Amino acid sequence: MFSILILLALVVIVAVWVVGIYNALVTSRNAYKNAFAQIDVQLQRRFDLIPNLVETVKGYLSHERETLEAVIAARGAAVSGLAAAKANPGDPAAMEQLAASQGQLNGALGRLLAVSEAYPDLKANQNMMQLTEELTSTENKVAFARQAYNDSVMAYNNRREIFPSSVVAGMFNFAAAALLEIPADRAEMREAPKVRF
User: Fold this and answer.
1) How many CB atoms are located within 10 Å of the residue 23 CB?
2) How far apart are CA 74 and CA 43, in angstroms?
3) Are residues 155 and 35 in contact, defined by beta-carbon separation less than 8 angstroms?
4) Strand, helix or coil for residue 158
5) Is the torsion defined by CA of 35, 37, 38, 39 positive or negative?
6) What's the CA gap between 184 and 1, in Å, rounded?
7) pTM value?
């Protein structure tokens, strides 16, 4: 009888231990998903600014139609990349697609802003100044949100990889989450578009 009570106590202790680890893993997973939601908010804000920016420069850069179309196409690709990542935050393929599409958008915006430098009237336009200021502010917020997301992913991945959590993570199929990284070979993605007046 005494051995049955000891066995029962051990089973309860192990069950509480597994539940505790499981709950910690779920909490960590939810933390990185919440951090990704903050990236989503900032990228949506960025995407909303871009059509206004294109409309503002359209009159000045009518012969730069290719540049404007590149920005619009890159914005569309970035919105698709964000939708894929939003459907499954942390998925390596989705994070890679998001990083690549954001890089294309950064490059297109950089070219647009570089071309706009040649137009003094455009640079002095109040709407243009306000939009570029908002875009720069949003770029900074995206960078901070990305860092918070990556920190949350690292904490989650560390928790799921250390022993004994790794045992519970394996039992309940807690997959590794991917960081939102900027590839080293894509230098244009490492910098926010430069805005100078």
Assistant:
1) 11
2) 13
3) no
4) helix
5) positive
6) 64
7) 0.79
